[in-house]
Design goal:
Helix content: 40-55%
Oligomer: single chain
Number of strands: 24
Structural class: alpha+beta
Number of domains: 5
Largest sheet: 6 strands, antiparallel
Strand content: 25-35%
Distance between the termini: 76 Å
Number of helices: 16
Length: 741
């Protein structure tokens, strides 16, 4: 039964193999022939359109050359000079007598060049008044204002009228360096011009603007042409019909300026092309039928034997598919069919061997998967695998985790779990960064349900899979963070204990002064001036004590701001703007500014401190890397260091250089001034709380506070000075990986 079906299919295939190609070839031949003939007509129309454009261009050049020649004619310029100067003194009779030869001169010297219209204007006050006109001068202006035509002195002006488009040229006429008049030439691209074009090139022509048809050599085609133009599909080649006649057309849109836009359509009838193509299609169809019939007959005889072989292999494939891998086919012939049979037998034997090996391998994989799943589920950390849509693919439930996962988390969106939804913004940013860079990322601390977790993200790109997955490793570090905070608190208490003695000493001195001055004021023995002077001293000492206490609170403060990626050069620039807002000028030249190799200038600031102008130069490494830091704390570091540098400068050529330089494991900042240096005897004490060389206003907590902030960021700070002039402070902030590692 199967063999019979295949035979029927072969018969049907044979019929279709003969008829379908015949139909396709005939249709394709017709389209090709018709298209080629149509293409020839379109090419002819395109050539005509190019000739029309060339003809109009020649008219423009002819008129342009003529108006330039006429504007330089001495006879005309002399006439206009006299009229412009003595017009009011010339009688009408004299004027009429004088204009006769002027008109004849224009007729004989300008109109013979096939110029259609000529107007000569004399200048009067602030306008040009029509003096002489020759040719088609109806509906032409009597008065022209210079402002209206000034832009058209060197180029043509197009404008649209009810009967067509007109081309005008304007040119001022000078005499003795003075403008005395104006000449205007006009050429009409109207119905007469278009009719001559259609006759000359043996085509039909239509000129259309926004207001409608200005000309059409075949009025009966206006309706279909209007419909085509209303569609505005931008086609250059068109086909349309009118009164059972088909036309091929070529569309030439134009925009001549001065709101003169429209379309020129050149078209010809297509009856001859259709008749010629039908005869060619008939001849091609006969030849194609004969050529197709021969291979079809050969294929029928060859296909019968092929069908029997296919049926034999089909039956053998059914037997093997039912599980009998011992079945073999007879393969005695030496052609491709015989080789196919031998390959079939080899394939069945290999399938038999592979099935046995596959069954053994599957058993081993099931055992290994059981072991791996047991280890995976026993880990004390949460491991979550999510896809590109943030859907959970695989996860384990750690006994140490306090996150409330659903019973069946696989297939659930990660942010549908309440603890992850509460941290969605920060977690989404980290996931997006991992997907974008395709590199691992660590978030040192995230809050999930009141517990702190360290989250590592590892992108996994699988072969032959368009989207990668991300493995999230979550470690509960709540106890670790509490221990760390306790250690920091202990260190702070020790530091506070260390500075308490210094604070007592620092406060005791102003308190003694305050007590002595209060006693003197209470004694009543002081004059009014002395009482005011002593009261001012008391207030000054109280402010000093307040400043000491404020610095101590800042030094002992435990809270810190959020850690985020930031650029130290940007933070330094913000601080400098605080000292001198709006003074940043990266293009300031001629100023002393040292820029290290591999760095680029960010900006120069001028800071006025104690009536001294101090120049501050900020430069950065060309490939500066961001660091993970507390922005407000780093601002405090720059403020303290800059304040120390400002206070050390007592001359009028103060200069501070700040260079931010990226290194392999972090970013180093160098701040160098040319102020008063630090004596060698004091270098070991500069980081001691309350040690200061500013006996009047210093608190001695600026550098210790900077050291504390930088150490909290895992960095270091170092100060060098030659003891006479100049101090350099270098501090280093490590990268996030260095801090975490």
């Amino acid at each position: 039964m199967a063999t019979m079906k295949l035979k029927y299919k072969l018969t049907i295939f044979t019929v279709f193999a003969l008829l379908v190609p015949m139909a396709v070839l005939s249709f394709y031949a017709g389209v090709l022939v018709y298209r080629n003939i149509s293409l020839a007509q379109w090419n002819f129309l395109q050539v005509v359109s190019e000739n029309v454009e060339e003809l109009i261009r020649q008219e423009q050049e002819s008129y342009q050359a003529k108006i330039e020649e006429v504007s330089e004619n001495k006879y005309i310029s002399d006439k206009l000079y006299v009229y412009s100067k003595y017009w009011d003194r010339i009688s009408p009779a004299t004027l009429e007598f004088d204009l006769y030869p002027f008109r004849d001169f224009i007729e004989n010297n300008i109109m013979f060049s096939n110029i259609e219209s000529v107007l000569i204007f004399r200048i009067h006050e602030e306008k040009f008044i029509r003096l002489v006109g020759r040719g088609l001068t109806a509906n032409l202006p009597e008065t022209v204002y210079p402002a209206d035509v000034k832009d058209y002195y060197s180029r043509p002006q197009y404008y649209r009228s009810a009967d067509g488009i007109y081309l005008r040229f304007y040119r001022p006429i000078f005499s003795s360096g003075r403008m005395v008049g104006l000449i205007m030439l006009q050429k009409g691209l109207n119905a007469g011009f278009m009719s001559s074009l259609a006759t000359r090139f043996n085509v039909e022509a239509a000129l259309v603007t926004d207001s409608g048809f200005l000309f059409n050599s075949r009025p009966e085609t206006m309706e279909p042409l209007s419909e085509l133009l209303m569609e505005k599909n931008g086609e250059v080649r068109i086909v349309f019909s009118s009164k059972q006649t088909t036309y091929h057309g070529f569309v030439l849109p134009f925009d001549l300026g001065n709101k003169v836009t429209g379309t020129l359509i050149l078209y010809v009838p297509s009856e001859n092309a259709i008749h010629q193509s039908s005869m060619i299609i008939r001849d091609i169809s006969v030849v194609a039928f004969i050529c197709l019939l021969i291979p079809v007959v050969i294929f029928v005889f060859w296909g019968t034997g092929l069908v029997r072989a296919i049926h034999h292999f089909l039956k053998a494939a059914d037997i093997v598919a039912n599980g009998n891998l011992d079945h073999q086919v007879q393969a005695t012939s030496k052609d491709e069919i015989g080789q196919l049979g031998r390959n079939f037998n080899d394939m069945v034997q290999k399938l038999k061997i592979s099935r046995t090996a596959l069954e053994n391998r599957n058993t081993e994989l099931r055992i290994k998967n059981t072991y791996i799943d047991a280890v995976f589920q026993s880990l004390l950390i949460n491991i979550i695998v999510i896809d590109a849509a943030d859907t959970i693919v695989v996860m384990n439930k750690s006994a140490e985790s306090r996150i409330d996962f659903p019973e069946n988390p696989v297939g659930v969106n990660l942010f549908c779990i309440p603890q992850f939804a509460s941290a969605r913004l920060e977690l989404s940013n980290a996931l997006d960064e991992t997907k974008r860079t395709n590199a691992s990322l660590r978030v040192p601390e995230m809050d999930f349900g009141g517990d702190a977790y360290e989250v590592d993200m590892y992108p996994v790109v699988l072969e032959n899979i368009a989207e990668s997955v991300i493995v999230m490793v979550m470690l509960n570090i709540t106890e670790k963070m509490e221990t760390k905070k306790a250690l920091i608190r202990s260190e702070r208490l020790a530091a506070v204990g260390q500075i308490t003695a210094g604070l007592a000493h620092e406060i005791n001195n102003p308190m003694g002064i305050i007590l002595n001055h209060v006693q003197l004021i209470e004694s009543g023995k002081l004059s009014e001036a002395e009482r005011k002077k002593f009261a001012a001293r008391v207030k000054s000492e109280i402010m000093r004590v307040s400043k000491l206490i404020e610095k101590l609170l800042s030094f002992s403060k435990e809270e810190s701001g959020p850690l985020k990626f930031d650029y130290l050069s940007i933070i330094a620039g913000d601080v400098l703007d605080f000292f001198e807002p709006g003074a940043n000028n990266a293009t300031d030249s001629g100023k002393p500014c040292t820029v290290r190799e591999g760095s680029s200038l960010v900006g120069l600031w001028t800071v006025v401190f104690k009536e001294l102008s101090i120049r501050v130069c900020l430069s950065r490494h060309a490939n500066e890397t961001p660091v993970f830091c507390d922005r407000n704390a780093m601002k405090q570091v720059f403020i303290n260091l800059l304040s120390n540098s400002f206070k050390s400068i007592h001359h009028d050529f103060g200069m501070i250089h700040i260079n931010v330089h990226s290194q392999e494991d972090g970013v180093a900042v160098s701040l160098q001034d040319n102020g008063e240096g630090i004596p060698p005897m004091y270098m070991d004490r500069i980081f001691d709380p309350f040690f200061t060389m500013e006996h009047e206003s210093g608190t001695g907590l600026g550098l210790p506070l900077c050291q504390k902030i930088i150490k909290n960021h895992g960095g270091s700070i170092h100060v060098t000075s030659n003891g006479i002039r100049g101090t350099e402070v270098i501090f280093f902030i490590p990268s996030k990986e260095t801090i975490d590692g």
